[in-house]
Amino acid sequence: MVQEMPQGRSFFHRPALADIAHKILGIRAWLRPMRASLLGLVAAAILSGCESSSVADKVLDDKALKPPPSVVEETFGRGSTEITLLLTRAPGGLYDGAARDIRDGAALAIGELDDAGVMKIKVIDVAEGPAAVAPALAAARARNSGLLISYAPQATTAAIAAIPADQRPPLINLSSPVTGAKVFNFGFDEVASAARGVRSVIASGQKKVVVLAPNTIAGVDEERLRSAIGQAGGALIGVVRYDPAAPPGDLLTRNKALLDDASALVLMGDSAAVGPILKGVRASFAKLAVVGTSHWPMELHADPAAANVIIATVDPEASLLIGERYRRFNKRSLTVYAAEGYDSIAVAAGIVRGKGAVALTPEALMTKTGFRGVTGLFRFTPSGMAERKIGLYKIEGGRLVAIEPKAVSF
């Protein structure tokens, strides 16, 4: 039965499990009854060894359902309500990087949250670009797909959004924002995370900021950062781009004068290159206040070099709840992309569970109270953007420690 609460829809249910979770983890606030309790994440995360007949355990025990690195179309779940996941394979024919993590997060969610077995995810490759969109969406419509979720280059995503709204289901877009009817942009914005974190550092007096970012950062994102830093009372004195696939080399040495002049550093990126760069910064520029982002590899939080870094990111308690399951299933750490894949399926699962597949509408997605998931508290707005309440944390003792009260509602 759907329960009403003011702080939004949560991906947790089963009151008995809430009591267990409180005793084990001390997170009663996360597990209090919500407006539309969205399914059994706690059951999956805490009682995996107790509910031998649960869908989640069947998924984890059924090797045939593990996302394989194959060239065939993949389907997860056995229900009749299709969620179409549009991704791009890498040149080698496999899903890699963010696309792989999104797929695997979505696959975990369908196993853990669709305990009624009414949904399925069909993964479709759109690596051919915009030309692949029309036939892929026509086929999805013929299969009565209830929702599209995409992570693709912007031109491909724009082609999806350009399909008339009456000829496709609603779209949840996990990549760069696009506009269109029934389009909802859900990607966790690294620039927004960086801006949120650097505001805190500027407020404490470190006003001269340097940004170290992957060489893929767009000019528009650089300008967004410059604007956010200026509005907070700081000054962006330089942006240094690095190649995530190359060793750091003399990156810091070449920019010594700039870094010596700065009082704060924003280090962006989601690759393994972030760790060596951070260690180099700590060794040579110890005076700098360092701001990380939501996209940092989560295992980096445990590195001593990350001590006292400020990060605006997803809720660590929620990440813990599914992180162990994700690691056991996929043999790697949870990422922000995997969390996005998980939450996008969880939103759909909660709506379908409460009202059926016909309720997968823009109106249902735009509930004013929003949703609370692995990526925190969020809601979709009529503009097509996701409004988020992301937390602000400091890394202490290898973990994220909140430095301001957690948002409980919009």
Structure characterization notes:
- This protein has 410 residues and is an alpha/beta fold.
- It folds into 2 domains: 213 residues, Rossmann fold (3-Layer(aba) Sandwich), CATH 3.40.50; 124 residues, 3-Layer(aba) Sandwich (Rossmann fold), CATH 3.40.50.
- 37% of the residues lie in helices and 19% in strands.
- The protein contains 15 helices and 17 strands.
- α7 links the parallel β5 and β6.
- It starts with 8 loop residues before the first strand and ends in an 8-residue tail after the last strand.
Any descriptors?
410 residues; Rossmann fold; 2 domains; 6-stranded mixed sheet; 4-stranded mixed sheet; disordered N terminus
Set out the fold topology.
Elements: E1 9-10, H1 15-25, H2 28-31, H3 41-46, H4 55-61, E2 74-76, E3 81-87, H5 97-113, E4 119-125, H6 133-142, E5 147-150, H7 154-162, E6 171-173, E7 183-185, H8 190-203, E8 208-214, H9 219-231, E9 235-242, H10 251-254, H11 256-261, E10 264-267, H12 274-284, E11 289-291, E12 310-313, H13 316-330, H14 336-355, H15 362-365, E13 371-373, E14 376-380, E15 386-389, E16 391-396, E17 399-402
Parallel strand pairs: 1-13, 3-4, 3-5, 5-6, 6-7, 8-9, 8-10, 10-11
Antiparallel strand pairs: 2-4, 12-16, 13-14, 14-15, 16-17
